[in-house]
From TrEMBL:
It comes from the Bacteria. It comes from Lactiplantibacillus dongliensis. The keyword Transmembrane helix applies. Residues 10-444 form the Major facilitator superfamily (MFS) profile domain. It is found in: Cell membrane. This is MFS transporter. Its main location: membrane. The chain crosses the membrane at residues 9-33, 45-64, 76-95, 101-123, 135-156, 162-181, 193-214, 220-235, 256-275, 287-307, 319-339, 345-373, 385-409, 415-439. Coiled coil: none annotated.
Amino acid sequence: MTKNKRFDWILLIILFSYFMILLDNSIIFTGTVKIAQELHLTQQTLSWVSSAYSLTFGGFLLLGGRAGDLFGRRRVFEIGLVIFGVGSLIVGLAVNAPMIIAARAFQGIGSAILAPTTLAILMDTYTGPARVRAIAYYGAMAGIGASVSLVIGGVFASLLTWRVGFFINVPISIWMFYLAVRHLSKDTGQSGQLDWIGTLTSLVGMSALVYSIVGTWEKVPALILAVVMLTIFIVQEHRTTQPIMPLRLFADRERIGAYLGRFLYLGSMLGFWFITPQLMQNQLGFSALMAGVAFFPLTIVNFIVALQVARLTTKWGNGGLLVVGIGLTLIGMFWLSFFTPATGYWLGIALPMVVIGIGQGLALSPFTAAGVAHTQGADAGAASGVVNVMHQIGGSVGLSILVAVQSMAHNQVIGFQHAILTGAVLLLIALVAAIGLIVPGERK
């Protein structure tokens, strides 16, 4: 087997697996109306179709990253594929609310295993320019996958059935499992033990945190539990010799900036992906299909720009590229906040989406690279887990903030403007973090 052939197959496995996760994280947004109608779900119950996935995804992420370090990346990756594939099948077969919510929670466990493991496999496999290129593709997939998922979700919900969006994961999971067995190196992991106190406190703490975010003010006890458990978790990680999340990961200025920036950036983006399709359907009369297709300006530009990231990183540096990317996303979001039905789709949504797409294409890969910068092999899984924690929790927090801001207005358009403007503020803080932490940390 040639080196180039090995590179191609492993990258294919990594990107396709990550795409599956992103697909099911976003496909819900354009299919919610159809799901609610078919399964007779209330708005509150419907929210749990998404929240159940986020809850287990966020709760099990650190465990998923550490498990790959200890028990071998390939073995853990294959387990994640099985869980995700089975969960997808049950979601597609769901006939009532408890069944689809439980299946989505099970699916989230699979995603929590796959997300950090795929990035850790990437870090183990590639070095030098090949790693820069692979991370660029991986980071680009975060934006492209989420955007394409909205289109795919709209197509399936309108022309076929929302269930196809989940059934399609089953053959993909089987194919990925076959490719993993054939092309991924068999590794035995590292010697050591799982930090059970850290595992349990992080699992309960992260799950309670997500639950308090996706819930209402009645979930204050969950927030208190999250604070207590995560405090115990941090103390435990400081004391133990084999932490599930080494605190030394936060000793690096560049990584801290990447974690904070990714948290804020994804918070803004997930809110944007969630409320914009609803606005287009309610204010512009778009169908679910058209709302998905309406994201093509962002998706196409994002894809084209993302392919140039590896070359641009060499030219501008990771930090410089990130600053430009966040800045353009900020400009696009600020422009979008002026939308009114009178401005229409092309001027009010499509053109700002083009600017957002360029910025997103430039920003997400550098965020990923900075999040795993200067890590050794022993910490690759843990660092990958933290990157995905910030991605998932940041998205949940930002979505909750933007939806809360939108709901304060009596008019949907005004609520949308205020929510998008709030997203722009989150991006501004992310830009400050990039300039103040990531760029100086990269140059030291």
